[in-house]
């Protein structure tokens, strides 16, 4: 974390916009990946999700062989924990790598970013699911080996390159695509709150106009394209709407969140990671519920709330706590969620008014009650 993180509201801090150096969107990139990566290094260490490690080694590896470059492919071990980061650092060193590549979901990509940071190497990010803001940001979310939120690791720079391969992203299970829409839906509301409070963005500086602007563009792109895009993704097809949503959920949402800032929705998400029965729920699915609770905290206009709920329903995201898989609402458990979401290291302080754990608990219960009335 930078020294600026300890500065509080009211101090004279600069605004910022930070983003990856390159963002590429297109089809069929894996078979030619060495030509994209070679400007950064000729010996690549890949951290890959289990489902794609063989395909990456075969198809991606062939492109390295053909160009006389070297690549090593390692399977990611399921959790972005300090132990997993340290394991990959050792293996990357052993391979003599001079560039780190992450292929997979958010946790895999975060592990690649952290590994590259500690080893002082460039990093290329190739998401296989469009489910989170992770690809473009300069943040790694570190979890315990048991999967509970541990800390945000603030990196000095964003990835050197992010590759969005629309063929791969459109063929992922639709649940991930919807989760990305959920994470993208929240970006504007959190950036707006953070801008209003002159809070701290994810670079620990003030939210910039361009950050909030990208977040707004993200929301509008999702409103315009999410429904036709979901229909295409159900058939594992990439269309113009799919490409637009991918640009929104991977680039606009990531850069918008980092430069515009997070607020209640993500803080509540982080609190929710302490609920064991929600461990298998996607990040974007929990954030979506966090957004409903944020809108209750803000006492948002009815039409705004309904616009959000309509998109959540149309793309098949979970709406209520029961949809998220909660079988029993235990007061004590959710008091703890509310408490955690208000911890000083989290982003609740970016709300434009004071928020107490009591307020959060009440907003969670109310958001769930409202959501139930919109349930089919
Ligand atoms: Zn997120």
UniProtKB/TrEMBL annotation:
Top-level lineage group: Bacteria
SUPFAM superfamilies, per the entry: Dehydroquinate synthase-like
A Pfam family the protein falls into: Fe-ADH
Catalytic activity annotation: glycerol + NAD(+) = dihydroxyacetone + NADH + H(+)
Cofactor annotation remark: Binds 1 zinc ion per subunit.
Cofactor(s) this protein cannot do without: Zn(2+)
Pathway note: Polyol metabolism; glycerol fermentation; glycerone phosphate from glycerol (oxidative route): step 1/2
Domain Alcohol dehydrogenase iron-type/glycerol dehydrogenase GldA: 20-166
Binding site for glycerol: 133, 183, 266, 283
EC number: 1.1.1.6
Stretches assigned to coiled coil: none
Protein name: Glycerol dehydrogenase
Species assigned in the record: Sporolactobacillus laevolacticus DSM 442
């Amino acid at each position: 974390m930078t020294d600026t993180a300890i500065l509080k509201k009211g101090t004279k801090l600069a605004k910022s916009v930070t983003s990856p150096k390159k963002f590429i969107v297109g089809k069929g990139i894996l078979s030619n990946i060495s030509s994209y990566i070679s400007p950064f290094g000729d010996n690549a260490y890949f951290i890959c999700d289990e489902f794609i490690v063989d395909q990456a080694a075969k198809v991606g590896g062939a492109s390295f062989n053909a160009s006389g470059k070297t690549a090593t492919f390692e399977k990611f071990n399921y959790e972005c924990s300090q132990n997993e980061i340290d394991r990959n650092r050792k293996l990357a060193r052993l391979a003599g790598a001079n560039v780190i590549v992450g292929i997979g979901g958010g946790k895999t990509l975060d592990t690649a970013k952290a590994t590259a940071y500690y080893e002082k190497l460039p990093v290329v990010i190739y998401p296989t699911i469009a489910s989170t803001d992770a690809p473009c940001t300069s943040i790694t979310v570190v979890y315990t080996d048991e999967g509970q939120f541990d800390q945000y690791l603030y990196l000095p720079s964003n990835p050197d390159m992010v590759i969005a391969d629309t063929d791969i992203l459109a063929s992922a299970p639709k649940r991930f695509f919807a989760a990305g829409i959920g994470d993208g839906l929240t970006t504007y509301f959190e950036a707006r709150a953070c801008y209003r409070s002159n809070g701290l963005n994810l670079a620990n500086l003030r939210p910039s106009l361009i950050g909030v602007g990208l977040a707004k563009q993200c929301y509008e792109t999702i409103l315009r394209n999410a429904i036709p895009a979901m229909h295409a993704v159900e058939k594992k097809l990439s269309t113009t709407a799919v490409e637009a949503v991918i640009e929104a959920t991977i680039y606009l949402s990531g850069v918008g969140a980092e430069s515009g800032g997070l607020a209640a929705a993500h803080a509540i998400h982080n609190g929710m990671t302490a609920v064991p029965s929600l461990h298998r729920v996607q990040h974007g699915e929990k954030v979506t519920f966090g957004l409903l609770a944020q809108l209750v905290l803000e006492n948002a206009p009815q039409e705004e709330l309904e616009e959000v709920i309509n998109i959540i329903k149309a793309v098949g995201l979970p709406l209520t706590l029961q949809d998220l898989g909660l079988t029993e609402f235990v007061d004590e458990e959710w008091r703890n969620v509310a408490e955690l979401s208000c911890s000083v290291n989290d982003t609740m302080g970016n709300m434009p008014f004071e928020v107490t754990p009591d307020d959060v608990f009440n907003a969670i219960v109310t958001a769930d009650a409202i959501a139930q009335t919109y349930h089919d």
